[in-house]
Amino acid sequence: ILQDFIANVYRSKTGNLLSVELSDLIWSITVAIFGIGGMIGGIGGGAIADWCGRKCGLLLNNAIAILGATLMSSSQLFRSIECLILGRFFIGLNCGINTALVPMYLSEIAPMTLRGALGTVSQLGVVIGLVLSQILGLPVILGTKEGWPFLLGVAFIPAVLQLLLLPMCPESPRYLLISKGRVTEARFALQRLRCSTEVEDDIEEMRTEDRAQQQDANLTMWQIIRSKQLQTPLIIAIVMQLSQQLSGINAILYYSTSMFVDAGISEETAKIFTIGVGAIMLIMTLVSIPLMDRAGRRTLHLYGLGGMFIMSIFLTISLLVRFIYHGMAYVSVVSALGFVVFFAVGPGSIPWMITAELFSQGPRPAAVSIATLVNWSTGFVVGLGYPTMLRVFENYSFLPFTAFLAIFWTFTYHKVPETKNRTFEEISALFRRDEHTPQYVENTTQIPPHKSFQSFDSAFDEKTLESCKHLLVYRFRRFCDQFFLFHFEETFCFERNLIVFATDL
Fold first, then answer.
1. Rounded CA gap, 341 and 48, in Å?
2. What is the pLDDT of residue 24?
3. Residue 84 confidence (pLDDT) above 60
4. Which of 78, 117, 129, 142 has the smallest CB count inside 10 Å?
5. Which residue ranges form the domains of the chain, and what is each CATH number?
6. Are 284 and 124 a contacting pair, CB within 8 Å?
7. Per its record, what are the GO molecular function terms (predicted)?
8. What is residue 392's predicted lDDT score, i.e. its pLDDT?
9. How many CB atoms lie within 10 A of CB 78?
10. Cα torsion at 318, 323, 327, 329 (round to 10°)?
11. pTM (predicted TM-score)
């Protein structure tokens, strides 16, 4: 429909028919400009977070979304191809900034024991938008020559909603205390977030992180790239982002309809299955929310990559033998749906979440910007390159993604540490032990369910404390101060659990 719009506008303005070559060029620019905007937004997201804060940055970003939605939806009214292209650029810019700011903001306001669940919410929002766009884009709703401007204008709605609702939320306490030194405002923000006035333990944990990362405060992207101490977490963050974009998920989402048609399914049925792909992703993202802080990021990422690896093999086999065995068309559908299920469990949300967790407050914005740039640029390359790869490899077009999945699974197994139930300082301490990538260490901390909103004192990791003497001193002081204040509501194991219980009071 949009290609017809472009051809009609060109003919009305020039009096000439649009050639196939020029049509392909304009359409390629229209599609690609979104990814370019995302890359630019990703680069600038960290600087915006440092300049005006996470909350303020998100609020300002809504102006870009409103501008982009207005330009796209009015392109038919003004008969302007330029408005359509420029609008997609601004929407891409908005999305790039959002992908940098949202995971950062959520990870900083969440209690340690809920950080994984709340971090998954950002991916949930993306999936909801994907499913809604698929439904609204049906020919019976807005997917028509008259309805497409309204479909593109829908992007206006979430921006307005955020402008109305986000002012009710507090700024990130970590940004206020560590980045700006505004202790009173940070304490008030924490009290609102925790619904309690007892937030001194969280304040002390932030101060501990601030003392430990003084040498890394306010680093630029180039300084992070050159830093030997931050080299390992940066490599992990980059590879995690690559594991999302090079997994093949974009090929499934963008080309699933044509893939199902090639497998022998009718076009109408293929469109229904495509919506089913988005619905399955939405359901599994919801399922993964409570699992994130129970199973752990590393474990779920391994399950996700492993499952996608197996499903990609089945998908390739079904495409190869679909003319021999007629039922293989439905094997390809099941394989694609299974691929999406495992993506939602692991690589869908974990790369964004773990990138924000791997860095302390100072280098976090710049590190997230680097990771966001890698994610958007890789997605841009995959989006442009997959049609060519499909023509060259035909039924074997998914095998490169299968190879990448095997590589990323191996890297995650050997190099990515578990971050669940650890404070930001404890995670950073893992990389300060030596100059090598830390091997996986199981975090066996057991946290009482009724203490789930305590962020620092609920976790006890002896190996991390041995590498951070100031944390050990803090633990000992807290134990001495409050030893006689604990109550006997529950029975805990002597030694470790006694200290955890005393510091939780």
1. 34
2. 87
3. yes
4. 78
5. 2-169+218-415 (1.20.1250.20), 433-505 (no CATH)
6. no
7. hexose transmembrane transporter activity
8. 87
9. 12
10. 50
11. 0.82
